[in-house]
Each structure stands twice: as C-alpha cells, then as structure tokens.
Design goal:
Length: 298
C-alpha cells in the first residue's frame, strides 16, 4: 500500500520522537553504568559520559564485599519473594470470592474496597495503625500492609469474570468445591494475569524505599533501596559503608585512594537495578498478554 506524503511525514515524525524518548531513557542508565565501571578518581575529573575511560570492576567489588549492603540485599530479596507470593495469594482469593455474583453483600463489599482506592487516612494514622499492630520496626511491615491492593484485585476480578461460566459449572457438576475450582480451573487459566500482577508487585517491593525509611529504625532490617537513599544523601563513604577499617580491608594496595563516593553510589544503583531488569524479559509476554486480557474482557 502506497503511503501519501503526509502519512510518510507522520511516520518519520513518530520514529524521531520515539527515538528521542529511547535516548532520554537509556542515556542516564548508560551514564551511571560508565561511572560505576570507571576508576573513581578518574571519573571525578569529568568527561565520562557513555563508556568508562579507565575500566575497573573495583567499585563493584567494594560494594558487593560490604557486609551492610549484603544484608540489605538479602532483606530486599526476601521481601520481594515473600511479598509477591503473599500479594498474589491474597489478591487471587479476594477476586475469586467476589467473582461469584450470588455472594451475599457482594455489592457492599465491592463498594467498600472501591472507597479505599479513593480515600486515604494519611501517613500519621497509617503509622499509628502499624504501631498498634506491632508491625513497626519488624520485617513484616514490608509484607502485610502491601499484601492487598484494591487496584490489583479489581484487575484480577475483571479477568476472572471473563472466564466462561460453563467451565466452572462443569467442574461443580463433577463435584468440585470452590477450592478445587480455584486450583484446577481458575489458576491454570489465570497464569498470564498472575504473571503480570506478580511483576507489578515484585517491582513495587524491589523499588520501595519509603517503608524502610519511615517504618523501620533497625539498620539490620533496611532494604537495599533504603540503603541507596541513605547513600545518595551521604557526604562520606564511611557513614554508610561502615568504619574506615572495614573499607580498608576491602582495598588492594593503592586502589583505596581511587574510590570516590560517586563511583560507589553508581555501583550501588547498578546492583539494585540490574536484577529486576534481567527478570522482566522472561515475563514480558505474560505481562503484555495479562494486562490486555484484564483490561478488555468483562
């Protein structure tokens, strides 16, 4: 099909705009990667933009060899795994129960959940609630408050309402109860949606620094993103990586003098961002399919 001059111009304009958008997204990441792979003292002189001028892996050795960061990384991994499983389980059970049109007070329950999406009590009442539940300064403050998301529940509910009633009715005629229907019928058909919501929840847990900064004071419980937030506002390496003796124990010869706060910051950013970027390509097809089905079916 031959395109007119205006259509070709429009396509060229779209390509240019999308290319500029890609550059604006990729450049900061490439800049941080270049700084993290460059000798810190050399990068401090400027001129490092897209690739390292003096290549080194020492910044990553210092970051990965630090006990504080290792523990923060462990907290983040545990939080992401447990929080994602809990979030998907609670969301699936709530959506499955509310998908039955004959459920008593179904409309009232849906309205109650909808209200929580529109109105919030604020940070201080939320903190008081967490304190009364003995969740403040515990690991479970990362998991329990975020186990249920009204938005995710409505998306999952929309998807479940698109499952043909004949499949559920045939399972019930064969003697299957609600739990058997959930395990044998609903879960296998909901894998794309579960993968999409799982990615949403996992990214939220991995990137969240707020809970660790405001609800946790124990430094042994802070996740890596909260540690990164402290690091970005720090003025000295020893304030976040421990004492100078701990830093010097990681040094090899004269490499200690080549470490700068900026190079450590960029290496920490890379370490905190790369894992979630590696997981996304494997779930992308489920992510796109699940979001489209959940937004269209009804």
């Amino acid at each position: 099909m031959k395109l007119s001059a205006s259509e070709r111009t429009g396509q060229i304009l779209i390509i240019v705009l999308l290319s500029l958008l890609c550059v604006s997204v990729l450049y900061p990441f490439l800049y941080m990667l270049a700084i993290s792979l460059n000798v810190g003292s050399d990068a401090a002189n400027g001129g490092v933009y897209l690739w390292p001028r003096k290549f080194t892996l020492y910044n990553f050795e210092v970051v990965l060899g630090n006990a504080v960061i290792q523990h923060a990384y462990l907290i983040t991994i545990l939080r992401t795994m447990i929080g994602t499983i809990a979030g998907l389980l609670v969301t699936l059970l709530a959506a499955f129960g509310l998908s039955y049109r004959g459920l008593p007070l179904r409309g009232t329950l849906l309205g109650y959940v909808l209200i929580t999406m529109l109105f919030s009590g604020g940070l201080i009442p939320f903190y008081i609630q967490l304190y009364n539940l003995s969740l403040v300064n515990t690991f479970w403050v990362y998991v329990i408050p975020s186990a249920f998301s009204a938005w995710n529940m409505f998306v999952m509910l929309k998807f479940l309402q698109g499952i043909p009633d004949a499949l559920i009715e045939s399972a019930e005629l064969d003697g299957a109860g609600p739990l058997r229907v959930l395990v044998s019928v609903v879960v296998p058909l909901s894998q794309p949606m579960l993968a999409a919501l799982g990615l949403f929840v996992a990214v939220m847990h991995w990137n969240d620094w707020f809970a660790g900064a405001f609800f946790v004071s124990d430094q042994n419980l802070i996740p890596v993103q909260t540690f990164l937030q402290h690091l970005l506002s720090a003025q000295d390496i020893s304030t976040v990586l421990g004492s100078n003796n701990n830093i010097e124990s990681l040094a090899r010869g004269s490499m200690l003098e080549n470490i700068t706060l900026m190079s450590i910051k960029m290496a920490t950013v890379m370490i905190s961002a790369i894992p979630i970027l590696c997981v996304y390509p494997f779930l992308q097809r489920y992510f796109v399919k699940g979001v489209l089905i959940g937004s269209v079916k009804g």
